[in-house]
Structures are given as structure tokens and as C-alpha cells.
Amino acid sequence: MSGTFVGMPAFPEAAAEALRNAQLRTNLAHATGTIRAKRLAVVGEVEGWEDLRRAGAAIKDEVLLHLDEHLVELERNLQAAGATVHWARDAAEACRIVSGIARSHRVEEVLKIKSMVTQEIGLNEALAADGIAAWETDLAELIVQLGDDLPSHILVPAIHRNRAEIREIFLREMGGVGRPAPADLTDDPARLAEAARLHLREKFLRAKVAVSGANFAVADSGALVVVESEGNGRMCLTLPEVLISVVGIEKVVPTWSDLEVFLQLLPRSSTGERMNPYTSTWTGVVPGDGPQEVHVVLLDNGRTRALADEVGRQALRCIRCSACLNVCPVYERTGGHAYGSVYPGPIGAILNPLLQGPGHDEQTDSLPYASTLCGACFEACPVLIDIPSILVDLRAQVVDARRGGVPGGEALAMKAAARTLGSARKVRRAERIAGLVGRLDLRGRRLPGPGKGWTRERDLPQPAREPFRAWWKRTGGRG
Amino acid sequence: MSPGESSGTNPARDAVLAAVRRALAGTDRAPRAARHRPAAGRPADVDLFVERVRDYRAEVVRCRPDEVAGSVGSALTGVAGVVVPEGLGFDVDGALVDDGLGARELDAIEGVVTLAAAAVAETGTIVLTHGPGQGRRALSLVPDLHVCVVAAEQVLADVPAAIEAVAGQPVTTWISGPSATSDIELIRVEGVHGPRRLVVVLVEPRS
Lengths: 479, 207
Ligand code: SF4
Description:
Chain B: It comes from Nocardioides marmoriginsengisoli. The complex is a heterodimer. By secondary structure, chain A is an alpha/beta fold.
């Protein structure tokens, strides 16, 4: 099982399809524009934001370069706090572990807190195959699940749906899986949220087993951290008897005090809030409070593959804030579905190929081309991931893989560009190079392999002839 | 065999750790650079705390130490059923003291009153560590109204100060306003699964 949605067309076709979907484009432009503005305002409030970004990147680099030691320490502290620690090499193994725990409690359902990693491993489908229903409890995920749909944005997965559609989905689907929506439901967002509250409350109160991810796992204390807005996370972490958390091995931070950096970086970069409504931390089993059986599944599933990639390794710093999506001109015009994967946008364009390796499949190989290399993602990223350099390096890897390992002209040009990008510290410089690479790749001639499809679609976003910041200044992001 | 080496009993664990070591083979594992530390001793601004809590559309009531019970009572006007944790330190009229109520029993109660462990001025956040007077986690989650009593001297300047204040606590909950969602057309709705109303009663010494 992979992180790529099975049967999805490669990015160029999917993007062309999405471009024809006017509602998706309008909603996305509104969403990304709104979140961008909020983010800029709350980031501007913080003195020393650049220092914080550097601190975040440095902590994550420290984790990655000593990942084995931090994982062993995390495991020891989790066990000392009464948690059972499991290890999973891949998606199938993680799903087997979770399903095994659920089945040992003879439950027919589990509750879920929105978590990208459980989507990545296809947990809901695996549980369904074992006769266990997995209920999503995040409002957007609930909309997506009830609508039998795919999420389109990390943060607001149902942004492609408007309120009238959501009302219809609730009226049509809720009754079949639990408490029905009130018959007089309107499309007022407050009423829709209330319908979700009533529908899920019943499930929270009877839940025996919940499955979560974690935003951070603290090695020196064994604490897991979940950052959320709605309170569905707190419900799942608190009310059930059994809690299973699936945690990617890159989620470790060394010490409790490192959280001071990430609890500042994440909410401001993500929802553009000073602080998200709820953050929960817990250390194993807390006597008399919450689940008395706690499992943690530490997941590899390609992360050690990404770790071995010297250029791409930094992608594992990602804290899934989605800031890079909201500033990406390609993402804004095509939406998350076009990436055909759990991880969309600029981070998806590097993470999916890094987790799976070049030459894995057409869809994944096409992702490093889903960018104009404008550098806006790098500028927004709270942990300073140099996405443009990784993209260029991955393009070279894809071309190599498709040529049977012999680097050709494009590959060499891209390797050179990757080196230049890698050494460039200034985004301005990256933007100039981006313009160059854009012309080289897309205007001069058509690319072989995955790049070819991308260049065929003429109504796709143009390469950055105009640097992103110039475009932004000129249009205020509306152009 | 050093700690963390193969135990021989868990092949998945051994494989993942071995893959990590392979991936890092040949990499310079130098110790990391100096980390960001919190700006020491920044004084907390209580007025800023009040403003930032209100930004989340939570309510703030400011009162003197001898007015706490009265302010809490007013915040609970018209609320059907109130639960309090042990160790609250003052009486709430007609309130049930939590003795391990079940989730369904809690669901039938409309309001809860707790203390906090700390608060953050810069972000308008209250932090619970669920000790005496704060109650277990479900208590301040299931009822629809959360009244939280915070002493002015508990208000810290920023997130780093609060992280330090609650270090070593097995469980913490950071609350910034009522539960909220922007999942429908990005329109903010206060109140999804957690309490839909948050009232912070801020207790300030007489000056
Ligand atoms: S790559 Fe950076 S900006 Fe994008 S989601 Fe990850 S942390 Fe956020």
C-alpha cells in the first residue's frame, strides 16, 4: 500500500480536470488567500520569527541526524509511562498492528482523529477489510467521509465543498451511520457544525477504541502532542478505554522544552492563529484520567528511504502546517486532488517521491514537475525546508531512473541547477534561477517522461517568468 | 550490547533502527547548534492576556479575590447542572463534586468550573495540568460551558515560559478560546465538540 491514491491519473491530467472545476478553484483561491493574510499578520507579531524558524530547523536536523538514539529514548520513556510500543516497517505492518489491537477488544468501530499518517497507510480501508468501521471525527474529514470523497487540503480537507453540498451530504448520509441530521437543517455553518456535534457526540460517548496520530513525540519525557481546533481530538484522547497512536518516526523532538519552538511555529504557520484552540499532551497511561490502555506504533514506511537522501532528508523536518500549500501558485489553481496523494502541494511534490523512490509509478514521478520553482514555499516554511532545491534534485533522479540510471542532458542540467539552488541562501536568487529553469524545462522544449504531460497542458500555471514576489506585489495574490 | 541494540525479539524494531543507521552511515553526526532559548524574565501583561482571550470570542470577567464565588455564580446563571472537581477552594451553589462520573453522566451536565495551572498572555491561552481543582480531562471537555478561574499571578508572558512551568506534568491541556472550526467555507464557527462557551474569571489582587 502506498500514499498515492490508487487509480489516480498522473498530475497533469488530474490538474487539467481540476482546472475545469470552477468551484474548486474559487474556493481554493478564497481559502488560500484568507489563510495567507492571517498567517502574515500573526507571523509579523512575533519578534525574532526568523530565529524561531532557524531553531525549528536545527532541532529537527538534530533529531534526524541522531534518529536512532532519540527513538530508543522515546521508546524507553513511553514504556516507563505504561504505554506499549510497536514498530512498523511499512503501511501493511502498521495496519495489522492497529487492527489486531482493535480486534483483541472485539470492537466493531474505532474513532479517528484527523491524521495524515493514518491516511498515508490506508488504515480506514484496512480496518474495513477486517470488519471494523473507522469513524472520522474532524468536521472536514467527516464531510469527506460521508461524501465518499477525497480530501483536497491538509488543513481544510473539505474546502472543495460548499455549504449547500455539505447540508445535502449530512441529510442524506448521517442517518445511515448513526444519529441523523435534524430534518430542518439549514446551510448555516453554525447549524451544520451543530449537526456534526450531535451526530458524533453519540459516538464519542460509547467509544471503546480511538486511533490518533501525533504532531510531536517528545523523546526525553515520552509525551505525545496533538494540536487541534474542534475538540474531537480531546474527546478521542480522553473518553475511550484504549488509545492507539500511529506516529511517523520523524515526529520525534528531543526534549520537552523544544515544544516551546514548535508550539509557536505551528499554529501561526498553519491556521494563522496565535494559538490553536486545543493542544493536548499525554505521557503513556495517566492513572485515573483517560484511556488506561495506550499503544504507540512507530512507523517507517519510506521515511528511512527519505532519510538516506542527502538533499531530500530535510523534508522530514516538515510539521505539516500547510503554509507551503497556501502560497503555492500551482496548488491554488489545481487543488489538492491533482497531486493524487495524501500529501498535496509543494510538500507532497517532494515527500511522496522521497518516501517511495523515483521510478515507483507514473503519478509519483510526475510530482516533482508540479511546480514553477518560484520559491514561495521555501519562504513560507517554518522549518526552512528548501523545497525548490529538492524538487530539482528529484527531477534529476526521476530522469535518471527512467533512463535506466544513465544521466542524460536534462538530468545533468538539473543536477547543476540543484547544486546552485542548494548553495543559494537567498530566495531572490532562487527566483532568478527558477525563471531560468522554467524556461529551460518548459519553454525551450518538451521534457521526456513525466515532464512531457505537464508541458502539454497549456492552460496550466505558467513557469515563473515573473518572480513570485513580483507577481504577488503586482496582484496582491489575486492575479 | 549497548542499550537500544538488537534485542532479538522484535524484528520490525531491529529493521527500522538498522535502516535509520544505514541511512545515516557516512553522515557527519556533529552535535547540533545552540538552540533558541526563551527571552528570560519577560513580564507578563495581564491586560494583553484579557485582550487576547477576548480575540477568540471567549468571555473574561475580572474580579477581586473576595468576589470569585460571586463572579463564578453569575457566569453560571441559567445553566442546568454544574460539576466541579475536588479541591476547587470555594463553593459553587448546587454543584456536583466529580467522583468519577461516566461520560454519559457528564454529558447531561451543562457547566463545569475549574482552576488552571498557568496562562499565556501573548496567546490568550490557559493551561491545565489536571491536578486538584482542575479535574481530570473529561471534566472540562464534555459540558458545554467551561468557567475557568485564573489568578493574575499565574499569567506568564509567552509560550516558552508556560512550557517551562508545566514541564514534567504527565498530562496538559492548552485551551485558547472555545472549540472552533473553519471547515465550512472557512467561516469560523465557535463550538464544535468541546465547550461552546469559555468564561475566564481573572482574579486580581487589590491594588
Ligand atoms: S513543508 Fe514546511 S510549509 Fe510545507 S507543510 Fe511542511 S512545514 Fe509546513
